[in-house]
Amino acid sequence: MALNKYIAVAISVLITMSSCEEIIEIDLNSSDPALVIEASLYKDSVSVVHLTKTANYFSIDEPAPIENASVTITTGNISEELSYIGNGNYIGQSIIGKEDINYNVEIVWNETEYTGSAYLPKQTEIISLEVVEFQPPSPHAPLFLQIESTFLDDPERENFYLLRYIQNDTILTGQYFAFSDLMAFNDTISFTNPMMSFDPGDEVVLKVFSIDEPLYNFFVQLNDALSGGMAMSSTPYNPTSNIEGAMGYFAAWSYDADTITIQ
Amino acid sequence: MRRLLFLLAIYPTLLWGQQNYTLSGSVTDAETGEDLIGVTVVAIDIGKGTISNNYGFYSLSLQEGKYTIQYSYLGYETISKDLNFNKKQTFNIELSPVSIELNEVVISAERRDKNITSAEMGVEKLNLKRIAVIPVLLGEKDVLKTIQLLPGISSSGEGSTGFNVRGGSMDQNLILLDEAPLYSASHLMGFFSVFNADALKDVTIYKGGIPAYYGGRASSVLDITMNNGNRKRFSATGGIGLISTRLTVEGPILKDKLSFIVSGRRTYADIVAKTALPEDRLPDDVSLYFYDLNAKLSYSINDKNRLILSGYFGKDVFGFSDQIGTDWGNSTGTLRWNHLFSDKLFSNTSAIYSTYNYGFNIGQGDISMRLTSGIENHNFKEDFTWFLNPNNTIKFGGGATYHQFMPGELTTDSTLNFEIILEKKRAIESGIYLQNEQKVSSRFSANYGIRLSMFNQIGPGWVYEYGEDNTPIDSSYYESNETVQAYYGIEPRLSFNYILGSRSSVKVSYNRMAQYLHLLSNSTSGSPTDVWMPSSNNLKPLYVDQLALGYFRNFLDNNIETSVEVYYKNLQNVADYENGANIFLNEFVEATILSGTGRSYGLELYVKKKYGDFTGWISYTLSRTENKIEGINSFSWYPVKYDKTHDISIVGTYQFTPRISISAVWIYATGNAVTFPSGKYVLDGLPIPYYTERNGYRMPHYHRVDASINLKGKKRKKFESSWDLSVYNAYNRHNAYMINFQESETIPGATEAVKLSLFGIVPSISYNFKF
């Protein structure tokens, strides 16, 4: 036992003396500013588009808004040019998002045209939200309180979803939970997010967005970009936008929302 | 040129008519009965000779006459025999190890001037007896980390056993253990190799001039042979280190006929920690270990026949109770039959099995999930060595391998009722070869041969064709054993040596290699989750042409060897992933692989002091490896991840007394090529890195010093022991293992680069024994 303790101490010392993290200075190239698009068309709403530019990686300035672009939304034979309302935001008036309809966006900036399209899927319906307990493998780790959501899945078509959590009026960002209907069972999907744990008394709003496949692929890749390492992990890359030549996305989506208070 | 090739081809037959007698036999260690590989057998009167093969067998044809035959092997006493040679004769020779410790350098088990006289190029043979003095991480002696100190061979990452040879990726290394290919040669995420040095007899790496009897990988061959087991007496070897204990037991079952060896190693970090640490620091049900088991039986049936059965079993386990766990490991088995058709014709017949499997479990109560993947193959091969005459040794043979690939299965219990099962893939890889090692004149020698390889992807299974957006546009089903796609390879292997004088020579080699297997990996240094895939209708084989030129010069009576080698490689069908490729459980993963051309070129300098109290070497490699693939970096040349411009190793050992030696290693390398952001943008309030170029940046340069002291115990008649005290990264440099770009935790809106260093200074101690 004495030997064991000695070796355990030695191992602890080794681990302590080993891995460490430190902030370093690195010279990164300055790239030409590229167009960044956040374009949304919700079911029963007008379209909203936010345009900014890419910046140097270590810049602490707010992203530069784009004021002089032309933004047009089209569906079928109907088009409308969005109005600029300041700070890089453009808003529509006449085209309202409807389920099962395709939409196109066209943006002209610096004499370059960027186009994309999106399909607005049918809205799902949340059947239930329940709090489930999860005890991590270590007996000394705290109990996890998680939310199991169950919602309808249309078996007649291939569906894609994106979940967003709002905890006590704060949108939880940093990770995107996008998944396909591969886990559907009896026309429903039950999903418990293993990364999200809440505290008793929290009020949580869960939004289940129905999205199309290109947007699903974009958010999967965006999540990869946010969580991936650099040197030892997969080669980093820009998530593939559904707007050719630009960063960002054009989303046409519907969602259902429900609220649960953690007990 | 044609005339020269014709003469080379018919030269052996021109000699056929002469009346020769043959001297043949085997050479073994007098103390253990182990076969000795590479023993020089020479008729010193006329300077004709040969060397023993991988099974200790030799054959030398001479004209009638009186000769003095000398058997010499580094570290063993030389034996000379006077022969009146008028009939064929068989001598089985036992050589005794020299009692005085030789201070030969680790990288050598050959005759003193073999680097000058041999036509081999780009080949190194490790002396396992002396590997123990090289300091390594946590004191675990490791052949894979030692070969990384050679020119042209670089480490794939901090503390990693993964290696890259002359610009080749890790999957381009053919790693053989008793002829069985190992598909993952590392433990514990790559920090330790699967090779327990106590069980090994011979380690040879070919980085160029690869002989025709090897095939299947594009860059290198690491051929490792296990000990056969002591035929004379029972003995045990072992050691206790900070993280593992190892024990080897060997001995005769029937003296001089049947021997065995069993060698095991297990890490015990979890056992020690569980018993010694407070309960709240580590739960009782944690598992964190790996083990290796090597076993071998060798049976000499008679003078002409021998059977050898060997196997390796290794596994890594990491988990918490039965809730979360991962395990992976190799298993191999080799059955060989050595047969002498005559005193000139040696054959080896091998039946080989090898498998690698990975598993990951997660579950609680009725909800559980298991992910598995793997590869399995069965191989049969036949190799002949024909000792035609002292100037020509012809090797020929062939073999076939049946591969079965398990790309991945995700299964769940009945509650989840969910599964993803990727279809198994199958292929048959076969090849035949012919090679001659010819001494053309006293100054000119040549190894020349050719390998003809064939690869058939076979059914059953679905085969897809893909459109521009990587989605399947057509599919076909193939029945069992039906050929889906066939590929062929014509692989010439040439190596020539011209001796300029007694101390120098120039060598040139050319080889073409075909590789039909591909490793899908998203890491530079390898991961247990990596998946092997066959060439297919969508994934073409990799073909590599390598041309190398070298000048070799020895000084001070062969005490100091120097060499300069330059090489150029051309790679066809080199693969890389498209942006955002998903290689995890992706049935259509082939569609995400882009193919193009590659090139690698470099200069290698090597200075080695082989004898004396101070031994060691300096190796320097200047190299560049680039790919050009449509869809990446605007179809321009870009460096591969493991490209390192400069790579320097300085290794030194000083023997203070017969019982005390110190060693030190200094390593410097340019940082790997890496993809860093050249900007950022904001989505949903989050800063997102913006990339403009793949592998356009470099990691910080890497360097460290390791040092060790080896203290031998007082030598007793039946017991030997030693202590190794070593320090890894002695000046505690924080080398970058990974650099992450992330949002600052202290300055709102700011982003920063964070360097992760894996190992600072790491001391270790181990105790070794033998009786």
List keywords for this structure.
heterodimer, A: 263 residues, mainly beta, Immunoglobulin-like, 2 domains, 2 helices, disordered N terminus, B: 771 residues, Maltoporin, Chain A, five-stranded mixed beta sheet, 58% strand
Strand segment tally of chain B: 51
Shape verdict of chain B: globular
Low-confidence stretches of chain A: 1-8, 229-233
Arithmetic mean of pLDDT of chain A: 86
DSSP helix count of chain B? Answer: 4
The number of domains of chain A is 2
Distance between the termini of chain A: 45 Å
Average per-residue pLDDT of chain B, rounded, comes to 87
Provide an overview of this structure.
The complex is a heterodimer of chains A (263) and B (771). With 263 residues, chain A is mainly β. In chain A, 12% of the residues lie in helices and 44% in strands. Chain A folds into two domains: 35-120, Immunoglobulin-like (Sandwich); 126-261, Immunoglobulin-like. Chain A has helices at residues 2-17, 213-227; strands spanning 20-24, 35-42, 47-53, 70-75, 78-81, 83-86, 89-91, 101-109, 112-120, 126-134, 144-152, 160-167, 170-171, 177-180, 188-192, 203-211, 247-261. Chain B folds into two domains: 19-100, Carboxypeptidase-like, regulatory domain (Immunoglobulin-like, Sandwich); 123-770, Maltoporin, Chain A (Beta Barrel). Chain B is built from four helices and 51 strands. In chain B, the strands form eleven sheets. Chain B has a 22-stranded antiparallel beta barrel. Chain B has a five-stranded mixed β-sheet with strand order 9-16-17-12-13, with no helix packed on it. The radius of gyration of chain B is 27 Å and the shape is globular. The chains are: A mainly beta (263), B mainly beta (771). At the A-B interface, helix 1, strand 1, helix 2 and strand 17 of A face helix 4, strand 44, strand 45, strand 49 and strand 50 of B. Strand 1 (20-24) of chain A pairs antiparallel with strand 50 (751-757) of chain B, so a sheet runs across the interface.
